[in-house]
Amino acid sequence: MKIGIGLPNQVRDVRAAVIPEWARRSEQAGFSSLGTLGRIAYPGVMDTVALAAAAGATSTIGLLTTVLLGPVWPSVILAKEAASIDAVSGGRFTLGLGLGGRPDDFVVEGLGPRGTGKRLDADIEMFRRVWAGENVPGSDRAAVPAGSRQVPMLFGGMAQASFNRVARAGDGCVGATVPAPMVAPVFESVRAAWREAGREGSPRLVAIAYFAFGDIDAARANVYDYYIALGDETADLGAAGVSAGADAVRATIDSFAEIGADELIFHPALDSLDEMARLAEVAL
Questions:
Q1: How much is the pLDDT for 138?
Q2: CA torsion through residues 49, 95, 26, 12, sign
Q3: CA separation for the pair 155, 177 (Å, rounded)
Q4: Contact, 174 vs 157, CB < 8 A?
Q5: At the top level of its lineage, which domain of life is listed (predicted)?
Q6: CATH number, domain at 17?
Q7: How wide is the angle at C-alpha 161 spanned by C-alphas 157 and 165, nearest 5°?
Q8: C-alpha span between 40 and 43 (Å, rounded)
Q9: What is the 8-class DSSP label of residue 153?
């Protein structure tokens, strides 16, 4: 199982200037990928901006969103953003997409929090068309340079519709930030949907978890704050799930390896570069 690390783009009130250096040092340490979390109505840095900065500071490490809220974006704009990150990184980007569950993240007029599943399915078709170099609807121009590729896509979600979306249109899935025993049935359902769809090979299964080594109370408070819009129960689960310290990080690695994750992305709950360095010492 590969071990990646998240950028601190959605740590509450992140010191945004740390992101490029975080990315550079993470690549040097040997992490497999740099991931992002995504919200709009939150004092962090946009996923696409964080990964563009990371792309410029690195040359080999993978880049992925775990996950970006697809339906909050106009589809052509998001398709161009994704293709642009993929291009400037030299083809290192994977677009992880989720539906979103917080109404305040849907800030674009006409793109509300209802009907997001059907909208995402339509958006995926538009992404494919844009990446293939077709003209933007209503224009005689393409949105991306000639030679742009079809960006790999992963999908989050814990419902059958999400599993079917992976099998129909994706390369794999991203598990939720919950303990491995809660992610295990999701992974198995994705595998089953993949087989039933007649797909060759296996889906890419990415797990995510939070970690902290320094001020654990502050770390848990940050994670709680990030999820409180979904209610106290979800926020409490997220805060309690922070892998706090070396032993907890090792136990988290073992638990996700046991359920067959291909990659585990540890997201930081604090934005100190020391956090990244300490995770590397323990996890790599």
A1: 96
A2: positive
A3: 14
A4: no
A5: Bacteria
A6: 3.20.20.30
A7: 85
A8: 8
A9: E
Tokens 């996923």 correspond to what residue?
47
d(CA 63, CA 54): 8
Q: 205 and 261 in contact (C-beta within 8 Å)?
A: yes
133-181 pLDDT, tens digit each = 999 999 999 999 999 999 999 999 999 999 999 999 999 999 999 999 9
Please give the tally of structural domains in the chain: 1
Rounded to whole angstroms, the Cα distance separating 232 from 148 reads 43
Structural domain of 199: 2-283
**Mean pLDDT over each residue of the chain, to the nearest integer:** 97
Specify the amino acid at residue 278.
Answer: R
The answer for residues whose C-beta is within 8 angstroms of residue 267's C-beta and 6 or more apart is 5, 6, 35, 37, 66, 177, 208, 209, 210, 211
Asked whether the beta carbons of 133 and 115 are under 8 A apart, the reply is no
Query: Among 19, 60, 17, 59, which residue's Cα sits nearest to residue 37?
Result: 19
What phi and psi values does residue 72 have, to the nearest 5 degrees? -85, -10
Q: What is the pLDDT of residues 65-105, one digit of tens each?
A: 999 999 999 999 999 999 999 999 999 999 999 999 899 99
d(CA 278, CA 269): 13
